[in-house]
Amino acid sequence: MNIHQVNVSYVNEQDRCLLRINSLEGEEFRAWFTRRLTLGLLPMLSKTAADQLHSQIAPPSPGAPLPLQRHQLVENFQKEAAAYNGDFQTPFKDEPAALPLGAEPLLVTELKITPLADGKLQVEMLEKLQGQARDLRLVMDPALTQGLLRLLNQALKVSGWLDTPTAVLKLDTAVAGPAVSLELDTADAADVALQSKPKYLN
Q: pTM, whole model, 2 decimals?
C-alpha cells in the first residue's frame, strides 16, 4: 500500500480514536484505537519514533575535515526537519473509496512495531475477536511516524482522556527480536470499566 494521507479523529459517541488511511490506489483503511490502547501506545511510539530518527542521523566523524563535519551536520538537520514537516493543512480526502477491510473499522486489540533494516517501521494492527481476525500492516518512514504521533496526540487532547483520574494502564510489552508488541491485558478490563464512562466491552 502506498500511503497518501493519514487522519486520526476522536469520536465522542464511541469514546475511541478513529484512524483513517487512504492510499494512492484509491483505497481507505480504518481502525479503532481504544482509550487503553492509545494511552499505552503513545509512550512506546514516541520512543520508537525517536530511535527511528536517530538511526538515520549519522554523527559527524571527529577526525574528518571541518567542511565535511559541517556538511554532515547540515544533512542531519535537514533529515530531522523533513521528519517533522508533514503536511497538516491539506484536508483528508473524504471521498468514496474501496474498503478492503470493510466499512466497519478494524478494532485494534494487538499492535506490533518492528524496526526494519532500512530505517522504516513496520506497524501491524491486529483485531482478534471471537470468531473474527483481521489485520492491517503499515510501513512507515520517519516523517510518517512523526505525523502519526502528532495526530494521535492531537486526538488525545480532544478526547479529554487525561482530564480525569483514570485507572493505571497495564499493557503487556513483549520484545521478540527487534519487534515490540502491545497486547491488551483483559485481566484489568473490569476495573477500568468501573472507573470510566461510557463503558465498552472492548
A: 0.69
